[in-house]
Amino acid sequence: MSSKVRIGISGWRYAPWRGDFYPRGLAQKDELAFASRAVGSIEINGSFYALQTPERYAGWAAQVPEGFVFSVKAPRFITHVRRLRDIHEPLANFLASGLFQLRHKLGPILWQFPPSFKFDPALFEQFLQQLPHHGRTARQLARQCSERLQRDDYLDIPADALLRHCVEIRHASFIDPAFVELLQRHNIALVVADTAGKWPWIEELCGDFVYLRLHGDQQLYSSGYGDQALERWGQRIELWRQGRQPADARRIPGAPGPERGPGGARDVYCYFDNDTKVRAPYDARQLMERLGLADTLTVQPGLVPQGDWK
Hints:
Blueprint lengths: L4 E6 L20 H5 L5 E4 L1 H4 L4 H10 L5 E5 L2 H6 L6 H9 L9 E7 L8 H10 L4 H8 L22 E4 L8 H10 L2 E2 L1 E3 L14 E6 L12 H15 L25 E6 L7 H11 L20
Parallel strand pairs: 1-2, 1-9, 2-3, 3-4, 4-5, 5-6, 7-8, 8-9
């Protein structure tokens, strides 16, 4: 089975990018259209802070080219506020909020946990058991959302939709073989997160895809990735897409070996989140060029990113 690699950015609406990555004079309403012609995927971050609307998701989908994929960051209300307790209705609300209006442009759902959240095996397994992997089960759960979200289209969820989930952890207690086994059993990917040494960096293959978040290798959210670093990430991505591990993979001692999908192949999603000094889009583009992915983008007259991506 062939695997796909998507390289992109975390979010797209940043003031420092205007007049730099975004040309001077580009209207803010055109920034997503512009960015989606430069990279192959984008994380939607607004969904982390508040529930979005079906109209907003549909609008985003309409602005990007065919073949483009979004990942969606799940609500912090579930991970940071409720901390996985009493989350049945909030989870239903998220699924009913309109993300399925992205249709075939919906990629993985990212669940990010705060640095203070410790690994609780029973609580975490209960959470993973609630996550739907198919449109049919997502629709069943969405039916139980708050009345305020029950609009005409709130159950507009394709029954045959396939849902992928990944988790990003930031507490050392997750460096536990039991955590890896739990993710593998539920086919949930563990985010490979480069956070300039601030939080755990774990390279365990747990789901049937790989998800990377590159927040900066020297300074969190701001430092760019040099040629050597990009070459190293490119090599790792090539191995992971084959279902293989780098010889120096940062694994958890005692963790079970990686489960493999058909043929061992895995899709890979990689997002640069070093946005504060306008490095993310350039680093993403350079990595795409190293992997031979830059020529696969759709070009639209008037929205062609320019520059040497340096």
